[in-house]
Amino acid sequence: MDKSKILAEGLSKIRQWVKNQEYRTIQVSKGDFIIKQHTQVSEVYWADNAQFSVLHTAENGKTLSLGDYHLADNFFGEMEFFSDGPSPFSVVATSDVALIAIPMDKFAELLLQDGHIAFWMNHRMSNIYLNTMSIAIERSLYPLKYNIIKDLVDRHTCNEKSQGHSYMYQEAQRFGCTERAYTRIIRELIDEGLVAKESDKSGVVPVNLDALTQSLEKYYQ
């Protein structure tokens, strides 16, 4: 079995299917909800290209970001389709995006018509689940300072470097902490000579990436 060929064929069939349909298009502006937490989803949405954040707000008012994403060929609402429950997360557009609204019954027909399509969908949902669980577990089991350092290292060592948020409270949300707690850790890292403010003061960058990476080792002991 060549998994990559199955996935490529499944995605190709989905793209062609979406292109051939005449469903309505919804324009979502930057900062608006694609899906809102606790709401029942009545359609599944498809985006050729989308930038968005996934957030969960607890009853105590604390908000945790489960990731910032820039994805091509993406569905929204498929998890809620399978669970038949309200969405546990909010999905917020971080840039303007055009969504194709697919009725639930038509989405079911799409999945049932071809094994390649169903295979692609299962693969995608598994990756989302594992990525989300990895973020949640690290946020839960490691101290705040570890998570901030690891995030900085990851963002400056991966091939496609992601960007932080412009506002401190948005950065704090990514770690499920208060703005005050996040600012305190950043100040510690600056005082330790590990990071510095960017020239426009909008974020921080590593001063010594190797030293920053090595500082993670003590949390593994």
TrEMBL record:
One Pfam family matching this protein: cNMP_binding
Residues forming the Cyclic nucleotide-binding domain are 11-111
Gene3D superfamilies reported for this sequence? Jelly Rolls
Q: What is this protein called?
A: cAMP-binding protein
Q: Which organism is it from?
A: Vibrio variabilis
